């Protein structure tokens, strides 16, 4: 059994690829993917996402404002209200992205801090997006006491040193389909070096489909390819990756019930 620990179910193609969320989940289940974390990126889209996943008890939710979506609007009171929903098991996606919007670094940092404070207050783990912002990401996590709530650095593409720093802070590292890409040599080294007990697997669908699906829209069923590649890199069975990453997911997101 696998968990897609990070997907955007409200952003999939329901016109050409899938007939609806039931279709998406059925395709995933056929490949042994039983649980899903649908991740929020804006406050505006959160209610629609929740309405979509509501009938499915094996789909959990997070609530946050992605650092590249902060210009779409940020209201802390609204975030706090949404984050207290019983189906919300995590805060985020939040974090820092200096690759695409370095000019908004200051604003990103302040909103990131507010997400962390809420996560600590509600004791819900964080889902962190970080790109070209290693020092500031770790500095802010430490300053705001993020070890009190824990979390995950999702779709990880940074250095082994950053991964180890995050693990020391009590965080997990989530691996996406990027690990299968031919040019992802540093990420392959990171996965090989880290303990499986600190890893999660994800699709980040509809983005970043793994090989052999690269170029197509990603979907939760493809987390199987990620798990298989992690098993190859770690020199363990796929069954071990399934068991351990699933246990890791439910340990981290303790409000998510099997």
Quick tags:
eight-stranded parallel sheet, 9 helices, alpha/beta, 8 strands, 258 residues
Strand-helix topology:
Elements: E1 2-7, H1 21-29, E2 33-38, H2 46-53, E3 59-63, H3 76-83, E4 88-97, H4 105-122, E5 126-131, H5 134-143, E6 151-153, H6 160-168, E7 171-175, H7 185-193, E8 199-201, H8 223-234, H9 238-252
Helix pairs in contact: 4-5, 8-9
What is this entry, summarized?
Helices cover 38% and strands 17% of the residues.
Characterise the protein shown here.
This protein has 258 residues and is α/β, with parallel strands linked by helices. Helices cover 38% and strands 17% of the residues. It is built from nine helices and eight strands. It has an eight-stranded parallel sheet with strand order 1-2-3-4-5-6-7-8. Helix 4 runs parallel beside helix 5 and helix 8 crosses helix 9. It is globular, with a radius of gyration of 17 Å. The N and C termini lie close together (11 Å).
Enumerate the strands of the largest sheet in spatial order, edge to edge or round the barrel: 1-2-3-4-5-6-7-8
Q: Report the mean per-residue pLDDT as an integer.
A: 97
Q: Level of helix content?
A: 25-40%
- Assembly category: single chain
Succession of helices and strands: EHEHEHEHEHEHEHEHH
Task: Describe the global form.
Answer: globular
User: What characterizes the major β-sheet?
Assistant: 8 strands, parallel
List low-pLDDT spans: none
What share of the residues does DSSP label as strand, in percent? Answer: 15-25%
Query: In whole angstroms, how far apart are the ends?
Result: 11 Å
Number of helices: 9
Give the strand tally: 8
User: What would you call the structural class?
Assistant: alpha/beta
Q: What value does the Rg take, in angstroms?
A: 17 Å
